[in-house]
UniProtKB/TrEMBL annotation, chains A, B:
Assigned keywords, A-Z: Glycoprotein, Hydrolase, Protease, Signal
GO molecular function, one term: dipeptidyl-peptidase activity
Protein name: Lysosomal Pro-X carboxypeptidase
Database matches in InterPro entries: AB_hydrolase_fold, Peptidase_S28, Ser_carbopepase_S28_SKS
Statement: the UniProt record of this protein carries the keyword Signal: yes
Domain of life: Eukaryota
Protein family membership: Belongs to the peptidase S28 family.
Amino acid sequence: MKKFNNVHLLFIFFLYFSGTTHSLFSPSSKSKTTAHPSATLTSNEDVKTYFFKQTLDHFNHLPKSYTKFKQRYYVNFKYWGGANSSAPILAYLGAESEMEMPDEDFGTDNAASFKALLVYIEHRYYGKSVPFGSKEKAYKNANTLGYLNSEQALADYAAVLIYLKNSLHAQESPVIVMGASYGGMLAAWFRLKYPHVAVGALASSAPLLYFDNITPQNAYYDVVTRDFKEASETCYKFIRNSWSEIDKVASQRNGLSSLSQRFNTCYPLEQSDELKEFLRIIYIYSAQFDYPLVRNICKAIDGASFGSDVLSRIYGGVVAYHESNKCTVNAYKYTVAADTFNVYEWQRCTEIVMPIGITGNSTMFQPMPFSLKNYAKKCKKDFGVSPRPHWITAYYGGHNMKLVLRRFGSNIIFSNGLRDPYSSGGVLKNLSDSLVALSTVKGTHGMDLMAASESDQDWLTEQRKKEVEIMHGWIKQYYADIDALE
Amino acid sequence: MKKFNNVHLLFIFFLYFSGTTHSLFSPSSKSKTTAHPSATLTSNEDVKTYFFKQTLDHFNHLPKSYTKFKQRYYVNFKYWGGANSSAPILAYLGAESEMEMPDEDFGTDNAASFKALLVYIEHRYYGKSVPFGSKEKAYKNANTLGYLNSEQALADYAAVLIYLKNSLHAQESPVIVMGASYGGMLAAWFRLKYPHVAVGALASSAPLLYFDNITPQNAYYDVVTRDFKEASETCYKFIRNSWSEIDKVASQRNGLSSLSQRFNTCYPLEQSDELKEFLRIIYIYSAQFDYPLVRNICKAIDGASFGSDVLSRIYGGVVAYHESNKCTVNAYKYTVAADTFNVYEWQRCTEIVMPIGITGNSTMFQPMPFSLKNYAKKCKKDFGVSPRPHWITAYYGGHNMKLVLRRFGSNIIFSNGLRDPYSSGGVLKNLSDSLVALSTVKGTHGMDLMAASESDQDWLTEQRKKEVEIMHGWIKQYYADIDALE
């Protein structure tokens, strides 16, 4: 199974339940990340940890705006060609999770070819980059959480990068920013808003268009469905039919108890929705991150080693997912990372409002329409705030992106794996000569930004190679532009 | 004399005294603007006044951020071709003054040829667009003034324009934003930050590069000096020599009293600096706004009708400036618009930090170096805030602009009159094919955005014609791009 222990690219992925706002779902339960004993110390001798005195509020001049907090970032000097040769800087933009000491990744793989300085910057309010002195204080309420948003985060990144370039006398070193998922959106947005800081951006699996109804709400689940259908048409049908079967059993006398038993749940089910949610999550998790897992689940469902009725088949899929007979449903609860859960929820309850839902019967799931009203109600209850569903498109754009960016902006790679359900909200067509979409038919979420391994398939190696070539092209052009100006 | 009663383009210009932060200087004393009796009513029947429920703080999600205030804007429907034909929208971005009912201007001149909707949006904290219910409350202290800055203002403009396009079903209507001076910077920045809202920008006399030491501090006064030298080499020399002459007289017994008498001051001078500041301001005012006035002043100085010694000549220049023998020095005090003075000072004390000063002896003035230390001290004293002199370039860029924007962004006209001292901080060379500098040798500050008149010289008419042609080109290309997408 593919491991996700590349911590600074840890893809916490956000599932969307109709009418509820809960549910960051960390893949860390599937493949534990090893927390570094002390993040302020260096474990990797090439990488140094720093803290930047960051401004709390870049966009106002209230007395409180000037408050500072410590933002963590890491620098790997090993491959850098130095300021004198204006050697490039590759900057990883942190996203919605702690950024632990970086180990190996896409950048390290390629740093030598770029002679690049590697910089990794943690996102405000995550990990050690927390204002107000502690998470307890920072997460307290809307008055302290209010400064957590993407606009402030981008301004943080600009401040760190400008500071670094100045202090290394590397003003002419071109910076390329990169990130995946939410971090990929940040990378693309950073290039659009701070072109004077970054010459280009690699935005991996960034669902930039899953806002403000640009993308149909069903699109995410349509891809999940397509993935399973592709793995096995019969498997798809069994899953599709399983929901009503679960409902049927649940409605019978002792039905919930029977379901609890048949699915080996860790505790007696109180409602069938617990089971259905659990199943839905393992399907979308597999589709998003791990297509071989989709195949294994379907193999088990089709194989019927636990029995050939629908529910036994589905349970077989669960066992394949877990790769064991361990108890179910409860397991899901542990996957929610307690430490980041609330704080990314805050982002979802304010600006990161992605209307993902299920309507009609195009998917293999039961309908679960997105309801902004219920979503807002939950946010009001949890945080006392109302979501601003139109703000992201007001600030960053998104509608008519092809028209708008055809003659504006440059040097962004939008990479997507088409098996990733989030690819449905990604940029899948070139917007211009240098705003380029790189899609792989077989890819899943953010694969290209993970460290290369010998087991990688050719198409993935090829995708990474293309990305590196394009980025080399940006840098070459940048140097030529400098020379032309002098 | 050229009149400046075009209220929404009223160029309040900001002079820079070394070590002090005071001095917005409104030209309104030279040519009174007639305040509209009630700005909520329509005097011009083609123009309607509206108020938009604006968000106080776009960039945070603090409970207070969601506070609303009324932002005033005007719409002129007279020339508009309508939403069905995707007819364009010309939007004037308000700057650091009240925006009164628009009368005639560049837009109206050309609205028919564009079939354009004309929109005029007042800048937050000015005129009737004031948060917290009243100017008294809004201007109270840093806790209420803190939301006054260019980033919030741009987001305001985006919100109004998006709202307008939606409510008029004019989503496909291309928007071109325009403004002069600070408003010109806003227009250029708006196109760079909100390309999805505006297809282009006309930035007239926008000193975008007068930040963070991109432009030498002397540049402004070098242009003033050049203007006077061009008008008359002897006049330039008289002015240049006058300062030490004033110092000499002032240092004598009864010298100040003698100066007061010779310059017909409205009150007895307490120090010679009062007189010197007054003189400096009439010179730079004339150079910035009114070159014929420079010529008249020099004619009087050279003509020596009040006597041929230096001080009599200089007084002759003052009389020519006033076009009368009215008392001097005090007059300057009245030119400071009480209503906008403090609030733009706030902007200068936070982000709009332009290091303009005089060093060495390249100018016709005495040295007056820019001192960030003194500037900051004054801001601390006046508002309790410290300036952020690097923020504008961090957020908008500015350093290496030619390199950065060569391959990023499009559709901005940077227009400048080279006699305008602020042109020294403007973009005077094309950055790319569609980021175009249009300079006129004889132009002064923001002339192109004023209403055309029969007395306009050919080069000014020609400049406006070029601007209109370029803007028509943007719109044509935009329509072609839409067609190509469909």
